[in-house]
Amino acid sequence: MPSPVLWQPGPDELQPDVKRRAVEVVAAVAGWPVGGQGVEAARRRVVALGVPGGLVEQAQGLVTGEEEATVEVVDAQYGGLLDDSASVLVVCRRWTRAPDGSVVAGGTTVDVRLSRAEPRWTVTELHPGAPGAATATPAPAVARVLAEPRIELPPEAVADLRSGAVHDSVLEAMLRLAGPYAFSVSVVRSGHPLDVFGTTRPSDHPLGRAFDVWRIDGHPVVDRATPRALVEQFMRDAAAAGSYNVGGPLAIQGGVGNQFFTDDTHHDHVHVGFRA
After folding, report:
1. Could you tell me the fold of the domain covering 140-273?
2. Residue 130: CA atoms inside 13 Å, Cβ hemisphere, count?
3. Which residues pair with 125 in a beta bridge?
């Protein structure tokens, strides 16, 4: 079984303990040592972190019967960040040991909801993604994206593509951006809030009309050392690829209408959305 180091927020995070808290809880629910399987054991691990044990009931699909499970957090990205509440999308690879001793690789993305509390933010909800079954006849662009080495996709994003629920506009934009860039996707469809956080406005992600990028040419978007010109050009090229709604850490001039936007939620990634 792999032994990954638990993900930690870097120095340029706006609210580092929000992400640290979310990652700790997901790791406690979805990973366990030999003999630590089952709901009751997961509940004890969660309570030891000072958050309600009932959260385990919201993520029972992750609390399986295998005798051992290991989680690697690929990235923890804001799904929303307000003064007193937050959503953190914890993007994971996961390995479980089957009864015959073999190791099965997979992954999940969990939308973790938090509220401000003292001395630390507390976790209030867990929403694991549910990408659905793979379609028997995926669109040709799906195979092209999955075969493109310059596009890095976490397990749940791969499952999203294979489900057939992602629009061609997203797939074609990914392929177009993979010409000048190598980039790492965090979230496509599942594992993202249904509504834009803090509003009742539907998000483009659950509709299969958006993707988020957390790393460009090996540089994390959240890192201040990442060239701002690189992030700006990626955002402009995403708009040129057909996105009507490009969000990121920079305030960019130009575009059509409100094509570019920035806020605290998008401090750590670039959002690329489509109308269809």
Report:
1. Muramoyl-pentapeptide Carboxypeptidase; domain 2 (3.30.1380)
2. 7
3. 113
Pairing of strands 69-81, 103-115: unpaired
Q: Which pair of tokens denotes residue 207?
A: 């509709």
How is 35-76 classified by DSSP, letter by letter?
A: T--SHHHHHHHHHTTTS-GGGGGGGGGGS-S-S-EEEEEEEE
> Is the pTM above the cut of 0.90?
yes
The pLDDT of residue 99 is 84
Per-residue pLDDT of 83-96, as tens digits, reads 999 999 999 999 99
* Residue spans per domain, the chain: 16-128, 140-273
Show Cβ contacts of residue 31 under 8 Å, excluding neighbours closer than 6 positions.
Answer: 69, 70, 71, 94
| Spatial CB neighbours of 40, under 8 Å, sequence gap ≥ 6 | none
Question: Which residue in the block uniquely carries the two structure tokens 């956080």?
Answer: 197
Indicate the class that CATH gives domain 16-128: alpha beta
